[in-house]
Design brief:
This protein has 287 residues and is an alpha/beta fold. The protein is built from ten helices and eleven strands. The strands form three sheets. A five-stranded mixed β-sheet has the order 3-2-1-4-9, sandwiched between helices. A four-stranded mixed β-sheet has the order 6-10-8-7, with helices on one face. The chain has a two-stranded antiparallel ribbon with strand order 5-11. A hairpin with a 4-residue loop joins strand 7 and strand 8. The N and C termini lie far apart (47 Å).
């Protein structure tokens, strides 16, 4: 990336017609309020789904640009399904039906069915649009979506030869910490860049939630579809499937160094320096 003074570039970006500013955003969210892959969640999953959906919708409504919302619900309860239909009248909701006679050798195999539907949907989107694939346990700040798009615009502007993606969470395990048992796996050298509102760093790894151009998905479609083999092929995980894309020389997946979404998994998943989780959780209480 070019070594240009931040203030000059921000002024140029403000006065220019950035191609992504009016690009349609497609949000694809997968959810299931039943048995979780994580055994020690910090919040109950059905309530987590509802509040995370509400936070996402608030953030999308604050974005003030064209977007579509595609929900892929994997056999949630009647109550949760009704909630989705009541609170997301403009969303396309796909109810997943899985053959109950199928036996899965790995718990992650069942979730691959809804993921395939998501990937097939993304495959049909126009190349010049954006897609935000996101899981149902990410609690968003009210302006997270707008900030993510601004960061993508800015980082694309200063690196025109690079395709930029945004991973919304500041993922703890990508930093060295004495209590992190997987330092050797996750921690690596990174590039840190001041963005429009906070520092961003590139990451070689993401979970299955990220913002990217649809064209990038189609260019490396095989790598994205390799996610479907997690749970079937021993040793397959995000680190050797989609993360191969983030390590391409012309791609940089950027991660905010102050999280834009709180991953409500296990306690260890909460990003460093988050001190407003209870407040954000309460703001998204469902009446």
């Amino acid at each position: 990336m070019e070594n240009i003074q931040l203030g000059i570039v921000q002024e140029q970006l403000t006065n220019s017609e950035s191609p992504n500013q009016k690009t349609k955003l497609n949000v694809v969210i997968r959810t299931c309020d039943k048995a979780s892959l994580v055994s020690e969640r910090i919040v109950q999953k059905d309530e987590c789904v509802k509040r995370c959906y509400k936070s996402l919708l608030t953030s999308l409504n604050n974005y003030n640009h064209p977007f579509s919302l595609h929900v892929i619900d994997d056999d949630s309860s009647v109550e949760t399904k009704q909630f989705l239909h009541n609170h997301f009248p403009n969303a396309t909701i796909h109810d997943v039906v899985v053959d109950p006679t199928i036996e899965y050798k790995d718990v992650k195999q069942k979730s691959r069915y809804s993921l395939k539907i998501a990937l097939d949907y993304i495959s049909q989107l126009p190349d010049d649009e954006l897609v935000y694939l996101v899981e149902d346990d990410y609690l968003h700040y009210p302006n997270s979506i707008a900030i993510m798009i601004d960061a993508m615009n800015y980082l694309t502007f200063i690196s025109s030869d690079t395709t930029i993606g945004i991973f919304p969470q500041d993922f703890n395990q990508l930093y060295y910490h004495p209590k992190n048992p997987f330092n050797d796996t996750y921690v690596s050298t990174c590039l840190v860049i001041p963005g429009p509102d906070r520092y961003y760093r590139n990451t070689w790894f993401t979970h299955e939630s990220f913002l990217i151009p649809v064209s990038l998905f189609k260019k490396y479609k095989e790598e994205f579809y390799s996610l479907l083999d997690i749970g079937t092929i021993d040793g397959y995980w995000e680190g050797n499937t989609i993360s191969n894309v983030w390590q391409k020389p012309e791609v940089k997946m950027m991660m905010p160094m102050k999280t834009l979404a709180i991953h409500l998994g296990e306690p260890k998943d909460i990003s460093f320096y988050v001190n407003d989780l209870e407040e954000l959780w309460e703001q998204n209480r469902i009446s």
